[in-house]
Design goal:
Blueprint lengths: L2 H24 L2 E3 L7 E12 L13 E4 L7 E2 L1 E5 L1 E2 L2 E2 L12 E6 L2 E7 L6 E12 L1 E8 L15 E2 L11 E3 L5 E8 L3 E10 L12 H4 L3 E2 L4 E2 L5 E11 L7 E12 L5 E4 L2 E4 L1 E2 L5 E2 L35 E3 L10 E3 L2 E5 L2 E5 L5 E6 L4 E2 L2 E2 L13 E9 L9 E4 L4 E10 L4 E9 L4 E3 L4 E4 L7 E3 L3 E7 L4 E10 L8 E12 L8 E10 L6 E3 L7 H4 L2 H15 L4 H35 L1
Parallel strand pairs: 3-8, 32-41
Antiparallel strand pairs: 1-42, 2-5, 2-10, 3-4, 6-7, 8-9, 9-15, 10-14, 11-13, 11-15, 12-14, 16-18, 17-18, 18-19, 20-21, 22-23, 24-25, 26-27, 27-28, 29-30, 31-33, 33-39, 34-38, 34-40, 35-39, 36-39, 37-38, 40-41
Length: 599
């Protein structure tokens, strides 16, 4: 074999090797699509109706759009507001700043929009806006009655989502496919608040529970003032901590610590979270216990606990947690009962004396009902609550820790934990009930435990567990299991399931409630992007060294004479082909000659 033939054969082998190499670097690989964050866009048009008409727009009417707690406007008229950053949710701290214009607060799973009034006496401000979600799915929109400046009936336009136009009386609107809509609100001197709920599309990375301590909660007091066995005044403070912040396995935890607030002197007794001076009768005897009869005056009887007498009049009677005040004239009945009764006004709880004079008040962060704040975690906690409850949940399938909210997938197994504590005094006839939402299935494994292996209970968690009496400062925990329903019960994306717990007690003057949230994510299969990454998962295609090794082996076999037989076979075949071709050409020429002679 000559050098030319050798060169040709080697070139063929090299071409084969380069074909393998090229395939390994150009074969498209399936990769996840790039993360696109969710956004909320708002296009606003303001106009005002006047009665009677005015010549111009009042200066305190504004088309500013504020976001979160920022003191400077985010935009005017048009705003594109991010809801996630690198797939992580952006959560704004609550703000009740009453500023002209629109105030937008981003929360987990919804956007809250508040329009403020600030118009003159006869003016009315009307706000219309179109909104749209990107990389998120619009779920529903509803009026929010919990905002401190909200005045029901003030927003006369109602909410409009899609078509046809819905009536203003519809308090909640649901949509199935649209990610955009419009809203309309009319305000005078108050506010109108709307919440628009959404779920982030499943092609975003899983959202962590928290990225900072502040997202877990606000540090501060979680109970009112109470007395401990040492005879001093205490208050329980809670500190929130975000573990592994900003990651998919981040969790929120908290620690509660009893902090001493006041030391009672030797002449004082701690009662209902305050140091109270011991009462002294005319005989010089001091009575510091409850239900004391004071014999220094005629017919004075104190019925109930925690009562203080400043100066007594005849036949005065008071109830638990009330105080009698009188003037110095013992023959006068002009006294009054302090904190005689209380009443809800919107989200505020007001106290009144027996003469119907308003006294102090409290803002109820989670609403006010039946003349009591609905949750112990209020901005200004009063001294009359003696029972607290918290609820947490953990995912047994993924092995997460207990937290106020967790992520789960369909069919995951969960464990809920309810923690109750009697603050300051015993809670009697305590009943706990947990309201499991649909798609959370009770799975038994109920365990009730306390400081002394608590077992004095009966009932079930769905209809109510009666714990009888919880002693002062005792903590009782209830755990049970629940399973998330199957995937067919959820739409694609993230669905929030809120599990609410409520507690009643015969001697508690409010209804403590709490909840834990489960964010169920059902992933959708999206079209994969084909991007040349250089390698695939196929060994025969990815390997660069394999074709090179084969080429070297073939070249070595040829140089060592292993292909001599093959060369002879190819040479004989070549001779036979040339002979066949020559005989065929000769036959064709003979045929042509005969045809020409016959002609």
């Amino acid at each position: 074999m000559n050098k030319k033939t050798t060169l040709i054969i080697a070139s063929v082998f090299l071409i084969i090797a380069f074909v393998f190499l090229y395939a390994s670097w150009t074969k498209p690989a399936k990769t996840e699509a790039a993360i696109s964050d969710a956004t909320f866009s708002l296009d606003v048009t303001y106009f005002a109706n006047y009665t009677p008409p005015h010549s111009g727009k009042p200066s305190n009417m504004s088309d500013n759009i504020y976001v979160g707690t920022a003191i400077s406007p985010f935009a005017k008229t048009h705003a594109v507001i991010p809801l996630t950053a690198n797939g992580l949710p952006i959560i704004d701290i609550d703000s009740t700043d009453n500023v002209p214009g629109l105030h937008i607060t981003r929360k987990q799973g919804y956007v809250e929009i508040t329009a403020y009034g600030f118009n003159p006496r006869y003016a009315r401000e009307e706000v219309k806006a179109n909104f749209n979600f990107t990389n998120a799915t619009l779920l529903k929109a509803e009026n929010n009655t919990l905002h401190p400046y909200e005045k029901q009936g003030n927003g006369t336009c109602g909410i409009v989502i899609g078509r046809p136009k819905l009536n203003k009386g519809d308090d909640q609107i649901r949509t199935s496919v649209q990610n955009s809509g419009s809203l309309c609100s009319t305000t005078s001197i108050d506010a109108d608040t709307v919440r628009i709920f959404y779920s982030v599309n499943a092609n975003l990375v899983p959202q962590p529970e928290c990225s900072s301590n502040t997202q877990c909660g606000t540090d501060g007091a979680v109970t009112g003032l109470f007395c401990k066995t040492d005879g001093n005044v205490y208050q329980t403070n809670r500190i929130f901590t975000c573990t592994n912040p900003g990651t998919s396995n981040s969790t929120c935890t908290h620690t509660d610590t009893d902090q001493q607030k006041q030391i009672c002197s030797s002449t004082q007794t701690c009662q209902s979270g305050t140091c109270q001076n011991n009462s002294t009768n005319t005989n010089g005897n001091t009575n510091s216990n409850n239900n004391n009869n004071i014999n220094g005056n005629d017919n004075n009887n104190i019925n109930g606990n925690n009562n203080i007498i400043d100066t007594n009049s005849n036949n005065n009677t008071t109830n638990t947690n009330s105080y009698i005040y009188n003037n110095a004239d013992s023959n006068s009945n002009n006294g009054y009962i302090y904190h005689s009764y209380q009443r809800c006004v919107s989200n505020y709880l007001y106290w009144y004396d027996s003469n119907n004079n308003q006294q102090d008040s409290q803002y109820c962060q989670y609403g006010c009902s039946n003349n009591y704040c609905l949750n112990y975690n209020n901005n200004n906690y009063n001294n009359y609550n003696n029972l607290s409850v918290t609820e947490t949940v953990k995912n047994l399938t993924t092995g997460s820790n207990f937290a106020n909210s967790i992520y789960a997938s369909p069919s995951d197994m969960l464990m809920f934990m309810i923690t109750l504590r009697a603050v300051g005094q015993s809670a009697q006839n305590v009943t706990v009930r947990d309201y499991l939402p649909s798609n959370l299935i009770y799975n038994d494994q109920l365990v009730v435990s306390g400081n002394n292996n608590y077992s004095n209970y009966y009932g079930n968690i769905s209809s109510g567990i009666n714990l009888n009496t919880i002693n002062a400062e005792q903590t009782v925990t209830i755990t049970y299991r629940a399973q998330v329903a199957g995937a067919s019960n959820f739409s694609y994306g993230t669905t929030t399931l809120n599990n609410n717990v409520s507690v009643t007690s015969s001697n508690a003057n409010y209804v403590p409630v709490n909840n834990a949230s489960v964010l169920v994510t059902r992933s959708a299969v999206y079209g994969a992007s084909y991007i040349a990454t250089g390698l695939t998962n196929n060994f025969w295609v990815d390997s660069f060294f394999l074709p090179l090794l084969l080429t070297l082996i073939l070249f070595w076999l040829w140089k060592s004479g292993m292909f001599i037989g093959a060369e002879k076979w190819l040479s004989n075949k070549n001779k036979m082909w040339r002979k066949y071709k020559a005989e065929k050409e000769l036959a064709n020429r003979i045929t042509l000659i005969r045809q020409s002679e016959m002609a």
